[in-house]
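Please review the protein record below. Let me know how this chain folds according to its tokens.
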Amino acid sequence: MSNLANKGEIFYLCLEPVREGHASYTHVIEIIQALEKLGWKLKLFNPVYHDRKLPSLYERILRMLKTQLQLIQVNTHPDLIYIRCHPFSFITALWAKWKGLKVFQEVNGPYEDLFIAWPWAKYFRSFFQMLYRKQFEWADHIIVVTAGLKEFIKKEAKHERITVISNGVNTTLFNRDAKTNCILPDQFVIFFGTFSRWHGISLLLNAIDDPAWPERVKLVFIGDGVERLSIENKTKSSDRLIYLGRKPYKEVGGIVAKAIAGLVPIQNVEGRALTGLAPLKLFETIACSVPVIVSDLPEQANFVKENKCGWVVKEQTSEAWAKAVREATNNTFRSLKISKDLIESISWSKKAEILDKIIEKNVS
């Protein structure tokens, strides 16, 4: 916490798991720390899960409700309630509207994210969309991570109090000089983060068997998720694959900095990518001065082309990804220079400065 005068108090509500290895952890913690440095007092409200494996859906819903009850029962009211939007955060949004409190909603994806993660929720699609839509309508301001998402939310919210603030990166942890004690192969490309259905894991697992894959280049995975078993099984049959398991957030940058390239093979599962993508791993890789190889999807592909910081794979086949990795090993690709100005522009501190100005404008 800095010695700046206290600008006010913010209650930050996140009903997703705030656990290392999850994107929500990085985004929530980095924004909180950056806003605190700018003079805000923040209190995080989130369900706590001590076990590595998440509990049942019933137990998670109970903890979400308990978390919101804790927020509502605080004796003093904050200057702002900042909500990482979730269908069940409707309860807090409704209470804040009743109390006349300022609310910001942070939206990181379209409705499809919920239905992909929880297929049973599709049977109640109209109900869950209503819970989201009302929160959008009531919000004093909405923060979104892509321009495409802004256009989508604008139609749903029926107002234009929306600002695009893309994901960022902690440049203290992710930089070209980051160190690691991890034993790594001489040449490797890397995928790190959550092993979700839409992250194209199967493409990469098949790509290492393709004749186009460069012989001496290994594929390193860091993270966890639903595709973990597929990765573990593949390590038994291929010496081109190395799975390092989950790593503490502060240790990942040192590993990424040693890679030839970072892989971002996100797929457009059920249309979730149509509103654009700004994945954390994209910016964290670039901050290490390591080029990225990305799938040809809105905004992430444009970002890579405009900033000349990597390679875009148009065809989503294992052969195309193998060829892209082979291209990453040649001198032309490896000589790509990622500018300091670009890295500075994507830092969390820069993102927080933008958010800080919007908050001050709304709570003053």
Remarks:
- Residues 141 and 161 are 5 Å apart (CA to CA).
- Residues 8-168+348-363 form a domain with the Rossmann fold fold (CATH 3.40.50.2000).
